[in-house]
Amino acid sequence: MGNLNWVSYLENIRLLSLGGNKFEGQITPTLCRLMYLRILDFSHNKLSGSLPACVGNISFKGDRDDAIFQSVYESNMYDYFSGYDLRGFTFATKGNIYTYGRNVFDSMAGIDLSANMLDGEIPWEVGNLSHIKSLNLSYNFFIGSILATFGGMEIESLDLSHDELSGPIPLQLTQLSSLGAFSVAYNNLSGCIPNSGQLGFDMESYLGNTNLHQITQGNMCAAPSPDPAAAKEVEETTSDPVLYVITAAGFVLAFWATIGFSFFHPYGRSVMLKM
């Protein structure tokens, strides 16, 4: 628990996995001193405030020789360095939790800030993180538009679901040739879902966006077909008042017809006199 200001002193760290704790407060710009980071996991905490723009200045490509870090496995002092054994390290990406071995830095570079209370707009500088393979900002309170600069990344998994993002999905995202998992579900997005490039995912990736529509075969931006049951209910509800008016009018006409028959028809008058 507590804040994360102390992480700025871990200048040489490459993997920082602090998910599933009770850390709170803001992510301060001092995080950006960790210029050798490859994997950052702050998920499932209580962090709040905006995301520092300087995060986009961290390269996430291992500027220092990661072979030095890997060499501890081949060292004769393996037992001494056993604390660096990452053969059981896990990281969530593409909607699943994966376990990585000794070559973790060859396989993954990513950021997971999901399930916090972060807010504000996503800094456009985040689009500079061209070397990360996974970015998860889901289950926060981010507002504003999806960054068009995401289109220049080499990302394989992008999760922006369960936030408060608005506006259209940028066409630049269709350029993400390596994208294997994508979700913008449950935001406030609008416009059309691009039907080209790597965004041809099933509708689960786009659920919960009332004003976000599919492109039809005629390249028209059409709203999804309404639920037949709901449409039938609306139709019945609309026609009910009309039915009531017609029924009431029928009773009135029948009443006056009976009165008229009683007064103007001879048989009717005789019946009335006997009564």
Helix and strand topology:
Elements: E1 15-17, E2 24-26, E3 39-41, E4 46-49, H1 66-70, E5 89-93, E6 96-100, H2 104-107, E7 110-112, E8 117-121, E9 134-136, E10 141-143, E11 157-159, E12 166-167, E13 181-183, E14 188-192, E15 211-215, E16 221-222, H3 228-264, H4 266-274
Parallel strand pairs: 1-3, 2-4, 3-7, 4-8, 7-9, 8-10, 9-11, 11-13, 12-14, 14-15
Antiparallel strand pairs: 5-6, 15-16
Beta fraction of the residues? Answer: 15-25%
Output the CATH class name of the largest domain.
Alpha Beta
Strand arrangement within the widest β-sheet reads 1-3-7-9-11-13
How many β-strand runs? 16
- Radius of gyration, in angstroms, nearest whole number: 32 Å
Give the overall silhouette.
globular
What's the architecture of the largest domain, going by CATH?
Alpha-Beta Horseshoe
In round numbers, the mean pLDDT is 74
State the CATH superfamily name of the largest domain. Ribonuclease Inhibitor
What structural class do the secondary elements suggest? alpha/beta
Plain-language structure description:
- By secondary structure, the chain is α/β, with parallel strands linked by helices.
- It has 2 domains: 5-222, Ribonuclease Inhibitor (Leucine-rich repeat, LRR (right-handed beta-alpha superhelix), Alpha-Beta Horseshoe), CATH 3.80.10.10; 228-274.
- It is 20% helix and 21% strand.
- The protein contains 4 helices and 16 strands.
- It has helices at 66-70, 104-107, 228-264, 266-274, and strands spanning 15-17, 24-26, 39-41, 46-49, 89-93, 96-100, 110-112, 117-121, 134-136, 141-143, 157-159, 166-167, 181-183, 188-192, 211-215, 221-222.
- The strands form 4 sheets. Strands 1-3-7-9-11-13 form a 6-stranded parallel sheet, with no helix packed on it. It has a 4-stranded parallel sheet with strand order 2-4-8-10, with no helix packed on it. Strands 12-14-15-16 form a 4-stranded mixed sheet, with no helix packed on it.
- Strand 15 and strand 16 (221-222) form a beta hairpin.
- Helix 3 (228-264) packs across helix 4 (266-274).
